[in-house]
Amino acid sequence: MPVPLSNNAVAGARDGSGAYCYYSFTGIDSTLVRSGIRLNAYKHDGTSWTSLPPVPDTLGKIAAAASTVGNKIYVIGGYHVLAGGAERSSDRVHVFDPQTESWLADGAAIPVPIDDHVQAVYRDSLIYVVTGWSNTTNVPNVQIYNPALDQWEAGTPVPDDNQFKAFGASGAIVGDTLYYAGGARLGFDFPIAGYLRKGVIDPSDPTQIAWSVAEDSNAALYRAAASVDLGCPQADNPLPNVFWFGGSAVTYNYNGVAYNGSGPVAPLQDFWVQSELEGAGGDGIRLYDGFPPDDLPALMDLRGMIKLPDPQDHYVLLGGMSEGRNVDGRGYLLGAFIVGLPDVQAGALDIRPTVTRGPVQIRPESIVAMAPAELSVVDIHGRVVLRQQVSPPANIDLSGQQPGIYHVVLARDGQRWQGRVVVVR
Q1: Pair 238, 379 in one domain
Q2: What does the alpha-carbon distance between residue 354 and residue 343 come to, in Å, rounded to a whole number?
Q3: Phi-psi group of 233: left, alpha or beta (phi > 0 → left; psi -120 to 50 → alpha; rest → beta)
Q4: Domain range enclosing 399
Q5: Under-50 pLDDT residues of the chain
Q6: Which of 79, 116, 144, 274 has the most CB within a 10 Å radius?
Q7: Could you read off the pLDDT of 207-244 as tens digits, one per residue?
Q8: Does one domain contain both 255 and 357?
């Protein structure tokens, strides 16, 4: 990033050229002191950074959150650190237009000023602002902003207790359900909250929410990044769910030093996934096996994760704090990038290319197979998605298939030759 930042609000939107870009607003720089709290705004278009007009406020702030609705970005809440050290929660709703790269007039003020809150978008139309810190305490408020009407409504508040009320929690909405995990509870040194909360939204009246909670040590995450995983039919998470990355297991002030006096806080390097929708035994969070990759550092002090508009579920992290309270201002593109498959074995099919958007050539390695035969393409669930007679070498088109791994089988007179191919978009 042009200026390394942590605790910065992030969102994605399309700019005036139609490109999907990543945006960062506010945050604290590598000094980790009051004077390093900024109003900076930046855009990354996938290639380079652009500095944007700063967030139109009077004093730098952190712990805001950003959401995109109707390709406008709404930067909500956050807090200022005043000259004497006092902290003041913000009631501002800043509206950024990515098409013109300009700030519009502020939206209606938040009824209860808020920071370090959970912020999530419902059905691409409403922004939910859930619990968080308001000047002197954690609050149970659920504040719902309608950008189309520039109006706030009160949702069913979370229960007024330390299981639900938190600052620095994170979550997202899947379907009609909002999940949020962790955060800091009220109490001596602001202990971590090891709870996964669930709010079921009534689609006929989105202000009505049925709240429940499950105690879970894996949910003890402070300032982690959260997003929605749309599910993958080839993996163990076939239905949409919420997942989290990073954060910390110890609560801390904006300088990365623990509230409990233990010193600098260590960030986490794990992914977690909400398990209820996976049939994994009810509400809870489990570690996401196989993650993270070695080149993704442990990160904390995150205020969002950008979900890219592609079917492969790719995400972007911007900023944050790594080991040793290091604010290095990096961006990370996360996702499963399939670059090829193992070399074919003797007697198998030679499929070129092994990663395709549609067309492939099937060529048996054995001359015996160079005769008319039945070709079948089978998906990962064992379903035949294409069957036809071919005379190898043959070209086939898989552009009508969903992204994923497919087995290609050539059969004739009881003999079989097979290989694999990956379809991408």
Answers
A1: no
A2: 10
A3: alpha
A4: 349-423
A5: 232-238, 277-281, 289-290, 344, 346
A6: 274
A7: 999 999 989 888 999 999 999 876 544 444 445 688 89
A8: no
